[in-house]
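# nightly structure sweep
# worker-07 picked up a monomer target from the shared queue
# config: single-sequence mode, recycle default, output format = structure tokens
# input follows
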Amino acid sequence: MLLSLSLIGFLALAASIVVRWMLRRVDSLGRIAPFPAISVSLSLALALGCAVPMLVDAWVEHRLEGAASRIAGGPVQVHCQGFGQAYVDAGAELGYVAWGPDGVPERETLLKFEPCGDLRAWLWSTKQSPSLDQVVAVHVLTHETMHMVGITNEAQTECAAVQRDAQMAVALGASPAEAQALALRYWTEVYPRMPEGYVGGCGPGAQYDEAVPTPPW
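# output follows
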């Protein structure tokens, strides 16, 4: 929102400078005022500086939404939290899906500012050596996708996501080997440290084992 307002403001400033010049380009003595190229160029450069990150964010959201929709088996919406939203957000969760009045999760998720940044960095990387934060960020997208397909129990959601992290990574552009390594790293380094309520019933032959093709175990 802040970038959008800034973009509009700088474009409006450039337009107002041009209009003012057009109205006053000839003075009372018939002299033509030079075009305010520096002021207009500076305003447009600032507008471009706002537009580029907006375009990058739109591209990232498009990639995340496409991958999540593929894993969900139908269209879902993924939004990345902006800096302004993050500044006033005191929540500790890395992403969330709202529940509808009927208690059914909506097919729309908001990923927090930091995991979206980690996902952006991972998407631009070779994907061969992701940081642990990037591994977690991919999993957060998978976890919220499992909520969007209707799973509400957190332990079941977490286990369903663990079993689909490799699929999500492939959908986001990783090779099968890179994706499997990412999923294994989450399973061995992060999942055991998850809080109570998010773990249990997950593993080969366990309660939430869905026998999907690419589990991390």
